[in-house]
Amino acid sequence: MVSNGMEAQVEEIKVGDVVTLRSGGPRMTVGTAHREQGLAVCHWMDGAHPFQGEFPLIVLVRAQTEDERAQGEVDAAGGVPRY
Prior knowledge:
This protein has two helices and five strands, in the order αβββββα. It is of the alpha+beta class.
């Protein structure tokens, strides 16, 4: 059974979101979300080569935005941005 926290994350994943697998991997863009089937088609690049794959929504998490990553670096440095 899926916990409420995971269900909330699955609900917020939508077409155009940048996601990763919960276990890690490349940043991917959601191209199609099939909510009724619990699946998403994601697209990513490896160098100059485009790829796509279909993944269960439950294994995807929204990737941090550039702003969120920068804020994390500020927080980790005790309020001083790392460069």
